[in-house]
Amino acid sequence: MHVQPIQPDFAAVVSGVDLAKPTNTALVDAIWAAIDTYAVLVFHDQNLTDLRLRDFSAQFGPLEIGRSAARGGPRRLALPEIGDISNLDLNSEVRALDDRRRLDSLGNRLWHTDASYMPTPVVLGLLHAKALPPPSPFGNGETEFADMRAAYDALTPEMQAGIADLIVEHDVFWSRGQIGFTKFEPGEREQYPPSPQRLVRTHPGSKRKTLYLSAHASHVVGWPVADGRLLLLDLNAHATQSRFVYSHRWREGDLVIWDNRCTMHRGRPHDEMQPRDLRRATTLDIGSTLDEAA
Predict the structure, then answer these.
(1) Percentage helix, strand, coil for the chain under 3-state DSSP, each rounded to 5
(2) pTM above 0.85, yes or no
(3) 149: three-class secondary structure by DSSP
(4) N or C: which end of the chain has fewer CB within 10 A?
(5) pLDDT 10s digits, 63-96
(6) Do residues 217 and 116 touch, judged by C-beta distance below 8 A?
(7) What is the pLDDT of residue 72?
(8) What digits encode the pLDDT tens for the residues 192-202?
């Protein structure tokens, strides 16, 4: 296994491993060590079935069942642990622009941290590219990642002290409402109530302090809503400056792993008339951020 940094301490390309083959504890430990250092890892030329993606991902922790799979009913993908990050319907046809699921998924183009609206949020995201649209004037569907450790380090000492103990409420319906999507299934709001999360966390692997931001972050608990939202807007603008961002240009066969505890990410536009098929697995944390020391 060889690790080539893309930036000095953020994002790296990993080569010399075939993840379609069984992985032993030593390799999993080496990947963890690279994640703790770089937060985003890129593996090119991987050929993973959904079953193999699930089993490989499960070596890093228990797997999340996402909102779509948790709703039940027919799905394009058989395994509930594998998220369908595509623009395809049950028949693998490109979804219409006004398709409800497509409109919901457009929230992923906002800077966010996966499932931060859950009481126990997630740790790793593992996204595998199966089919990509050709380049187009609409964009190429890049995924951008922001280093929340570096963003925290760049805050003034006064700001770091001022936000150290703040708690923020995260709500998936707040994030979707920002793009005008409000057509949720009956009972969905009750299934996913808002969750409070620490604004500042200490990453357990690197021991670095990190901001924990997301489009799901609605307001600061105990503050007037307007004041909290203005603070969050300022912090988001700070944390997503180009100096903190790595933009991943997808190739078929890529597997990208990122640590949601110390990054934000967003998808970029692409040609919606052409098939785009990515598969994701996500590992769960072991407890609430409120149980952590800042």
Answers:
(1) 30, 25, 45
(2) yes
(3) helix
(4) N
(5) 998 877 777 778 999 999 999 999 999 999 999 9
(6) yes
(7) 74
(8) 899 999 999 99
**Residue type (1 letter), 81:** E
DSSP string across 57-122: HGGGSPBP--HHHHT-S--SSS-TTSEEEESB-TTSPBPPTT-HHHHHHGGGGS-B-TTTTSSS-E
Count structural domains, the chain.
1
Q: Which residue has the tokens 């963890």?
A: 32
- What separation in angstroms does the CA of 63 have from each of 112, 183, 214? 19, 27, 21
Average pLDDT of the chain, as a whole number: 95
Asked if 148 and 224 count as a contact pair (C-beta separation under 8 A), the reply is no
Instruction: Look up the domain containing 113 and give its range.
Output: 2-291
Please report which confidence band the pLDDT of residue 15 belongs to, taking 50, 70 and 90 as the band edges.
very high
Q: What is the CA radius of gyration of the chain?
A: 18
CA angle 113, 27, 80 (to 5 degrees): 45
The pair of three-digit structure tokens given for residue 294, joined into one six-digit string: 């800042």
More confident residue, 3 or 291: 3
CA 151 to chain centre: 17
The whole-angstrom separation of Cα 264 and Cα 150 is 12
Question: What are the Cα distances from residue 189, in Å, to 180, 183, 289?
Answer: 16, 11, 22
Q: Which residue has the tokens 């770089």?
A: 38
Assign 183 a pLDDT band (cuts: 50, 70, 90). Answer: confident
Residues 6+ apart with CB under 8 A from 73: none
Distance CA 135, CA 223 (A): 45
Q: Domain holding 6: CATH number?
A: 3.60.130.10
266: left (phi over 0), alpha (psi -120 to 50) or beta: beta
